[in-house]
Amino acid sequence: MTTGVAAAAPAFATTPEARRALGRSAYQVRKLIDARVLPAGVHGRGRGGTLLLDPAALAALAARPRLPQHPPGPDTEPVALAVGLRPAAPDPDPDNQRAVAGWDAAGPPPESAWVGWWRTGPVVADLCVGLALPILGAVSGFVVAARAIRGWTPHPRVPALIRFDTAALPAELEACYLDRQYTPSTGSPWELLRAPRPAGAPALPAAPTPVTDTAGAPHDG
Description:
Shape: globular
Distance between the termini: 63 Å
Strand content: 15-25%
Low-confidence stretches: 211-217
Radius of gyration: 20 Å
Number of helices: 5
Mean pLDDT: 84
Helix content: 10-25%
């Protein structure tokens, strides 16, 4: 008589496990799932279905190298402007001149994805242009796209909102930022990532800290 060996049950991870592994909130994990940066499937029927995650994809995401993220000070300098992206959805704001805002890992973003408004204010915008910083698009702190900042335009009605003019980065420089991560700060969809300054280099003027959202003003994030 032959005995069959039962197939091993597939291993899945849950969203609470993802929160612990990634160090992200439930909202941030949900954004990663909705943007398809973290693959997931639904087990069960109806509204009570459980989201099950690919454990290998979760481990790979958690293991992504970290970008420099030092606190502001005379011994550090900005190295990139990181901006938070939502999952892709139709953009209701005609000022943005694009059909879709946000990110979907299923395909490359259109050029218009970078046309939006950020509450950095002109001081930070000038700093980014003067230092030729890259702008990093990230979902919940996981970088999915990178461009070079070439200039900026103020919003016609809200002075603190900035639209950046961007260009493609050289492939070898783009590779230094893609598939990296940082820990998003609370209260702002953007932040300057900073690294230690080389010894002997003159200190740069400190940039203002990111401000929290203001009701009624459109912006990305």
